[in-house]
Amino acid sequence: MADLSINFAGVKSPNPFWLASAPPTNTAYQVNKAFEYGWGGAVWKTIGTPVLNVSSRYGGFEHKGNKLVAINNIELISDRPLHVNLREIAEVKKLWPDRAVIVSAMFESDPDVWRDAVMRIEDTGADAIELNYGCPHGMSERGMGSAVGQVPEYCEMITGWVTAAASIPVIVKLTPNITNIKVPAMAAIAGGANALSLINTINSVIGVDLDDFQIQPSIGGKGGHGGYAGPAVKPIALSMLSETMQLDQTKDFGIPISGMGGVETWRDAAEFLLLGASSIQVCTAVMHYGFKIIDELCDGLSNWLDSKGAASINDVIGGSAPRYSPFNQMDLSYRVVASIDEDKCIHCNLCYAACDEGAHQSIDLTVDGVKIDPETYTSAVRPLPYVREDDCVGCNLCSLVCPVDGCITMVERPPLRDSVTWGQITQQLPEVTLRWDEMEKYRAEKGIDIH
Amino acid sequence: MPESSPASQAQPDLEALREGFSELKPAMTFREATIEADRCLYCFDAPCVQACPTHIDIPLFIRKIATDNVTGSAITILESNLLAGTCARVCPVEELCEGACVMGEHYKPIEIGRLQRYAMDHLFEQDRQPLPVAAPTGKRVAVVGSGPAGLSCAGELALNGHSVTVFERDDLPGGLSTYGIVVMREPIRVSLEEVEFIESLGVEIRTGVNVGTDITADRLLSEYDAVFLGVGMGKVPDMQIPGEDLEGVTEALQFIRATKLAEKDGLEQLTSIPLGQHVAVIGAGNTAIDAATIAKRLGAERVTIVYRRTDREMPAYDFEYDFIKGEGVEFRFLSQPVSIQGQDGRVTGLECVRMQPSAPDDDGRRGVVPVPDSTFVLECDQVILAIGQEKHVDTIASFGVEVERGYARVDDGMATSNPRVFAGGDCAKLTGHAMTVTAVQDGKLAARRIHAYLNEIAPKVGEERMHGEKWLT
Questions:
Q1: Which of A41, A171, A307, B18 reaches 20 to 30 Å from A411, CA-CA?
Q2: Which CATH superfamily, name and number, covers B30-126?
Q3: Among all residues of A, which ones are annotated catalytic?
């Protein structure tokens, strides 16, 4: 059984799963309960400046029977008084010395306020502070949350105030509502951050009620942008994680990253780990299913580590990160083509529609090896999709729409020409990248035929 | 109670009857329908469309359910099949659309029948007619018979602006759907609602009019521009064996009819349907299965289906056979009834002779021959005959229509040998399976041909391409 324990910037926890700063970590009652279920840590729901919440706060994105593919919220930071939160944090940490208790904080941009807050947080015995530079609604209008995260100078300045005052690790939580995540990441590091966490929620309008035209969630007839989270955001989070892992300070894990955004199962978590996250935060899945999902998360992760012969979670962290490449470093001669297993094919012919109408017209419908015209074909014999390998560009679409596992696989074929990247072409034959006639000459020379 | 006493009346309580005589498959909830609709792959060239005799655009109507455009879904269905509420319930979907569903190979087929019912129920709940009706053409068409073929033809013609009058011999319109499909498969309410829907398209239905006696074929031919015959089939024929006149011998269709009317007039009437304790049902078609099911659910202690061949040759659908086994009905295969025995004018038993397989007959079915000296008596106090139906040869012939083996002879477009007379449904089903859905398709095809005939134009091909036209010959 693999060792799931982690040491994240000096913060230790028995497993990598922390509750993210959010409604599930609002009270001692909840965090105590979560720890009883086995959660490795909890980032307390953001404490800070006084707030008042609205009623009607969450909106759900339903897709094909899944009620919560994503959730959005316009709930603010904790609406409980600061002293109540601090007292409860201290009580919880005392009860659970082996778990990571991290305090998320958001205060007005005043160095004295922040210094005072850091002292009071450290007095609770908490293991670390997480700076909420991500909240995209309500707080941002007041110059906090993502309003800080979106301005690198503010990000660096406030991080500097906190790190100057703090003796415990400071994690900066980044907002995804920005064009280049590396910029605020570098600012946080410049401000002395010990670690990063990402992503916070994404700006979103979850939907509109078609009966009464109300934006969801509707607050007395009004709606606005909220923070988007849940399974649907995972690919965005993975992308931002991968981008941030490109920094010199993160590459070697000198500045570790706590990954979050759409983690619902151990599989999601494993992907974050492979791309470089060294702790995992979870919120929406708990809001959907409750704390008990921790069993599945730990068990699944542990079994997977065992199956990979990994003794510890540290053996896989960042395992896929070096593969993250810019487009211009990818080998243009690498070739895959779609291969259809006729025995598994159920003849839905979605691959045909996808290729013919949505991709590159490389699949025919055939009967006994002869192409048929679906417009006029009426026989009860179901036609079989056939891939014209020479025309297949290896786009994967057919295999993605195929409903049968293992029916359409992408198989590697020997390259038809020497290995080359776009970067190399740009360097060696810049005219090819700038002029179509040169490109056509290059294609003719290399035997590149695009049908 | 002694065997010789009048048919004993087992009486399950009303609640049990209500349960036993409600629809076998429940209606889908919004959530259930949406999830099931979302399972549909939306195949590129969906085989279910081809498998449906009326070629409903099934993936499209299912997608409209998935997107909560249920009225749009119902309209898509109606564009190919005006009696889709009935078909959703009575179609042997396992043999048709669902049998062809690629998901059957993958996991399990989409519940197309129940989804169609969901869409149609939704439309009928709104009580509105959503289809566009063409301006009146002034042409008049008589439709004989208000079963699925007649209603389908009448509705399609009305949509094209023709004036249609349907003549129905029975008190209630709807034919087999109203009188002959067991309520567990289709409540009479559904059939009558569907009739009202056809009427809402502008069709006039005259019930209690017997064509041939109340109004002659000649008069219809002289008063109308065209005639469609959808007269279906008649009563169950006599077996021509001794004892058929005994009290306790029942015709399966009459037996089913009584339960349908009870559903309409009050379920307590189910208790006054004459019923034996030990019931023998002769025949093994779907009507026999239905009659046996009803007898069991009405409270008969023992119900036995008697069939001269084996289960391999029985004409009932496989799923019907599977269903009836679960109902606790017994089977006596390879048993040929030779006489019905009685005492004091009442049935006491069914005398049969054992049969054994012989060489296959002309239809390719294995033949059976009697086993010498093998007669036995199946004790019973009721015998239900379900051995097929008589054909309305005289009615068909009275319209100057060529008849073959008792059926109206029609071409692919449902035209008979009389240029002004068209026919479809069971009365013209010379080959192939006679199903409600094929009757609906017959009526639709006939309406197209009649429309072309009335407009003195050739049937359009290529232009105004209708859905499913690809499969029309």
A1: A307
A2: Alpha-helical ferredoxin (1.10.1060.10)
A3: 135
